[in-house]
Amino acid sequence: MQPHLERLSDLLAPYPWAYSAIVLAALCLLAWLANFITKRILLRGLGSVLRRTSLGGAQHDRQVRLRVIPRLANIVPALVISAGIAVVPDLPPQLVLIVERLCQIFVVVTIALAISRALDVVNRNYERRPDAHNKPIKGYLQVAKIVMFVLVGISVIATLIGAKFLHIVTGLGAMTAVLMLIFQDTILSLVASVQISNDGRVRIGDWIEMPSQNADGDVIDIALHTITVRNWDRTVTTVPTKKLVSDAFKNWRPMSEGGGRRIKRALYLDQRSVRFLAADEIARFRRFVLLDAYLDRKDQELSDWNTALAARGAEPVNHRRVTNLGTFRAYVEHYLRHHAGINQELTLLVRQLQPTETGLPLEIYCFTADTRWAVYEGIQSDIFDHLLAILPEFDLRVFQARSDAPMEVRLQGEPAVDGPAGAAPVLEDARPR
User: Fold this and answer.
1) Is the pLDDT of residue 84 over 60?
2) CA-based angle 149:123:74, to the nearest 5?
3) In DSSP terms, which residues pair with 268 in a beta bridge?
4) Cα separations (Å) of 116 from 3, 119, 140, 179, 253?
5) Rounded to the nearest 5°, which phi and psi values hold at 201?
6) Cα 103 to the chain's mean position, in Å?
7) Worst-scoring range by mean pLDDT, 43-52, 99-108, 299-308?
């Protein structure tokens, strides 16, 4: 081979750059051939081996498995050029040095990108674990990437200026304050990520509500700097991670894990419809099976009270009597106590609130056994459908603002109105309440 190269050199002696060009072309051809062999032959063979081994199961995507190796394969042609550029004759030493340093930089950057891809694969495989949403590691991996690329940047600078890596790192000690200022958000986000991961205050899949950031929906991603929330209107809000440590927010996960979703809604009753019940009306309420125990207890309680008053000679006006509102309140409570959709182990109340200009609020306070949104709304609607429909049985009315329907004018003396004939006409408001 050596005599052939010398003969070729003598043949091209009249053309000084011809021999250098041929050697340089041969070097480029060798680098391309190395790249072809590495990617087209070795990688295909490796892919075939992976598919036949346990690593080639359905849980591993082939594109994910091989996304790191092709990146590393790019190092081979760079190493060939770096090692062979010095062999090319008549090249300026400065050019050789620049090419060698560029190849070194390419190798370092390529390795860093391959490691970054490997960390992505690690995170992808970790997220497939059932408990991955409880302790996400994406933030930690992003910190590792940042540190790695900072070191790569220092290495690139050291290679370009011909300095040693340790000398550059030592010189950066004087710039610590500047770096702290530059990476202030990153450091705060890292601390917040550690706190969030340790105490589990936010996990992927949680429903959080943070009005200060216009976030109200499910957490779909937890990264180093931001937490992504898909709102109920299908929009996406990104919340700075540090905000979940410094600002207040509501996490609805304990509600779903606690086995009960609260119903807290009131019926506004017309106070003018509240009255005492006569004996025959009480007997009529015996038709309601849910009221048997209440009416028996109330009958005994009032009988004892009123008997004691009679013995003291008290007037009948002092007697205690059953009201339609109290009976209805007892009915609602017993109805909820026997409702299959209500969690009987949690708080259950039927209470009156402070009367307002819109009526007397009768509040239902209980928890559904199923916390799913659609099921919860269905149970709540069914309960109030039934209560509104059964309300007239107790001679109670719901308070409702008047509508803009026209008023009817009726003359006194007509069959629909009682009163002496010839009386002045009376305006009656027939609009629905």
Assistant:
1) yes
2) 50
3) 361
4) 48, 5, 13, 23, 33
5) -70, -25
6) 45
7) 43-52
Segment 237-246, tens digit of pLDDT: 999 988 888 8
User: Which residues, in sequence order, are CB contacts of 182 under 8 Å at separation 6+?
Assistant: none
Question: Are 79 and 100 a contacting pair, CB within 8 Å?
Answer: no
In angstroms, what CA-CA distances link 384 with 206, 262, 333, 347, 348?
Answer: 29, 14, 13, 18, 15
Q: What is the pLDDT of residue 19?
A: 57
Cβ pair 53, 47 in contact under 8 A: no
More confident residue, 375 or 119: 375
For the cut 60, the answer to whether the pLDDT of residue 419 exceeds it is: no
Q: How many CB atoms lie within 10 A of CB 247?
A: 13
Q: Which residues contact 129 (CB under 8 A, 6 or more apart)?
A: none
123: CB partners within 8 A, 6+ apart: 137, 138, 141
pLDDT digit string (tens) for 3-12?
A: 555 665 566 5
Nearest residue to 282 (alpha-carbon basis) of 296, 269, 272: 296
For residues 32-58, b (16+ Cβ closer than 10 Å) or e, as one string? eebbeebbeeebeeeeeebeeeeeeee
Q: Given pLDDT bands bounded at 50, 70 and 90, which one contains residue 58?
A: very low
Q: Which amino acid is at 33?
A: L
Question: From CA 255, how far away is CA 262, in angstroms rounded?
Answer: 9
Which residue in 84, 197, 223, 212 sits closest to 141, CA to CA? 223
CB 391 within 8 A of CB 328: yes
- Residue 27: predicted pLDDT: 73
- Packing angle of the helix pair 75-84, 16-36 (nearest 10 deg): 150
pLDDT at site 156: 86
Q: What is the pLDDT of residue 259?
A: 83
Residue 68 has pLDDT above 60, yes or no: yes
Element (H, E) at 426: strand 426-428
